[in-house]
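Field log, afternoon session.

UNIT: design team B
ACTIVITY: writing a sequence onto a fixed backbone
BACKBONE:
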């Protein structure tokens, strides 16, 4: 064998030896990854503690009631004579209903309005009565003077004009007296006196 051939065999042998570990490493790589994965899974499974069944788990103890707070202030009993604590709250009645509570006020307002209207009518009637009474008084005086003048004449029996004047005045007097009587009746229907309380009575007509 020549020297050149020997060198070629050595080179081929060296190449073969260098390729064998690389091939083996490539075959071992998946096995190492699988082994690492299985090791992690086993570690995670071992980290979870196993549940142990005991009497406590089957029959748990009842919850213990909370102890009273020692810092809480005790309830203060009502003082003697304090009736506000002894009186129970008022039951809901008419006062809690706005519509029912407003009824007395509405009635009072209606009554006050009626009284004011009645007083205004009575005052107006009194004024009309006073004016009618004054006209009656004037007519009575005028009739008295005409009668004196009429009968003073010696020939009054033939005084036709004087008789007609007296008759006209008397008719007017009767009409005024009827009006005055009607006004007084209206005032009486209202239940009001002719003279309001505290007022001076009307002056009597002079003869």
């Amino acid at each position: 064998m020549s020297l050149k051939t020997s060198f070629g065999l050595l080179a081929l042998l060296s190449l073969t030896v260098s390729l064998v570990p690389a091939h083996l490493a490539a075959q071992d790589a998946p096995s190492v990854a699988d082994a690492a994965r299985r090791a992690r899974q086993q570690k995670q499974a071992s980290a979870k503690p196993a549940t142990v069944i005991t009497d406590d788990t089957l029959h748990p103890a009842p919850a213990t009631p909370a102890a009273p707070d020692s810092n809480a202030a005790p309830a203060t009993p009502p003082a003697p004579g304090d009736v506000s604590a002894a009186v129970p709250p008022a039951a809901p009645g008419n006062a809690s209903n706005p519509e029912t509570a407003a009824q007395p006020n509405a009635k009072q307002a209606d009554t006050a309005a009626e009284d004011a209207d009645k007083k205004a009518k009575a005052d107006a009637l009194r004024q009309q009565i006073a004016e009618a009474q004054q006209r009656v008084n004037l007519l009575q005086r005028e009739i008295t003077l005409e009668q004196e003048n009429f009968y003073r004449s010696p020939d009054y029996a033939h005084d036709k004009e004087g008789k007609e004047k007296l008759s006209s005045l008397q008719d007017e007097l009767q009409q005024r007296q009827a009006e005055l009587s009607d006004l007084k009746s209206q005032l009486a229907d209202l239940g009001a006196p002719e003279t309001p309380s505290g007022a001076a009575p009307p002056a009597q007509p002079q003869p």
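LOG NOTE: The mean pLDDT is 73.
NEXT ACTIVITY: expression trials, pending approval
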